[in-house]
C-alpha cells in the first residue's frame, strides 16, 4: 500500500474513537453521567495512543515492520490530541471552566498532579515534532523526546491513583508500561555493554 494511503488509513482509524464519542454525545448514549464518560473515554484513548506510539520501535526491531516508522509521529500527535481533549473535557464539564477550583482539586486529588506533567510533556513533544524543530534542536531533540517514557509512567500513575475498587485495568496498564519501558532499558544496557567491549 502506498505511504499516502497508509497515512490516510492511520489518520482515519485514529480519529474514529473521537467520531464515535461525538456520535454517542449527539445521540445521548453516554449513560447517567455524560461528563464523566467523556473525561474517562478521552483519558483512556490518550494512554492507548501512548502504548501504540511506543510499540512502534519494538515492532520495527522485532518484527522488522519498518514501514511503521513513518506513522509514529502521527500516532504521537493523536496521543496529544486525546490528552488535550481529556483536559478540556475535565475543565469544561467537571469544573465548569472555574480555574480556581482546578488548583484546589490538584491538592485534593493527587492523580491530577501526576497527570498534568504528562500532558505538558506531550505538548512539548508535539510542538517540537516537526522536521524544522528536529534540525534546530539537533541531538537535544532525541533527549527531549525521551521524556515520552516519563509521560507514559506518569499516565499510568494517574490511572492507578484513581482506582476505587478493581485494580485489574491499572495492573494491565502497568504491565504494558513495564514491558515497553523494560525493553528499552534492556536495549540501552545491551548497547552500553557492546560499546564498552569495543
TrEMBL record:
GO terms for molecular function: electron transfer activity; FMN binding; heme binding; metal ion binding; oxidoreductase activity, acting on diphenols and related substances as donors. It holds the Pfam family Ferric_reduct. InterPro entries: Fe3_Rdtase_TM_dom, MsrQ-like. The chain crosses the membrane at residues 45-63, 75-97, 109-127, 147-164, 170-189. It is found in: Cell membrane; Membrane. Its cofactor is heme b; FMN. Binds 1 heme b (iron(II)-protoporphyrin IX) group per subunit. Binds 1 FMN per subunit. Residues 49-155 form the Ferric oxidoreductase domain. One of its GO terms (biological process) is protein repair. Keywords: Cell membrane, Electron transport, Flavoprotein, FMN, Heme, Iron, Membrane, Metal-binding, Transmembrane, Transmembrane helix, Transport. It is a multi-pass membrane protein. Part of the MsrPQ system that repairs oxidized periplasmic proteins containing methionine sulfoxide residues (Met-O), using respiratory chain electrons. Thus protects these proteins from oxidative-stress damage caused by reactive species of oxygen and chlorine generated by the host defense mechanisms. MsrPQ is essential for the maintenance of envelope integrity under bleach stress, rescuing a wide series of structurally unrelated periplasmic proteins from methionine oxidation. Heterodimer of a catalytic subunit (MsrP) and a heme-binding subunit (MsrQ). This is Protein-methionine-sulfoxide reductase heme-binding subunit MsrQ. It comes from Gilvimarinus xylanilyticus.
Amino acid at each position: 500500500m502506498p505511504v499516502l494511503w497508509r497515512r490516510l488509513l492511520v489518520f482515519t482509524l485514529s480519529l474514529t474513537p473521537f467520531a464515535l464519542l461525538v456520535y454517542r454525545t449527539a445521540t445521548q448514549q453516554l449513560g447517567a453521567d455524560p461528563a464523566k464518560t467523556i473525561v474517562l473515554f478521552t483519558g483512556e484513548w490518550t494512554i492507548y495512543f501512548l502504548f501504540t506510539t511506543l510499540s512502534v520501535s519494538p515492532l520495527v526491531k522485532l518484527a522488522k515492520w519498518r514501514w511503521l516508522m513513518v506513522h509514529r509521529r502521527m500516532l504521537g500527535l493523536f496521543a496529544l490530541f486525546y490528552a488535550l481533549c481529556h483536559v478540556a473535557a475535565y475543565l469544561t464539564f467537571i469544573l465548569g471552566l472555574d480555574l480556581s477550583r482546578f488548583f484546589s482539586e490538584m491538592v485534593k486529588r493527587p492523580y491530577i498532579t501526576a497527570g498534568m506533567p504528562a500532558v505538558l510533556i506531550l505538548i512539548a513533544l508535539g510542538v517540537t515534532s516537526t522536521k524544522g524543530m528536529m534540525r534546530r534542536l539537533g541531538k537535544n531533540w532525541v533527549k527531549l523526546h525521551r521524556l515520552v517514557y516519563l509521560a507514559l509512567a506518569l499516565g499510568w500513575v494517574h490511572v492507578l491513583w484513581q482506582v476505587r475498587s478493581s485494580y485489574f485495568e491499572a495492573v494491565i496498564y502497568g504491565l504494558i508500561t513495564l514491558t515497553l519501558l523494560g525493553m528499552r532499558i534492556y536495549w540501552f544496557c545491551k548497547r552500553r555493554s557492546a560499546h564498552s567491549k569495543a
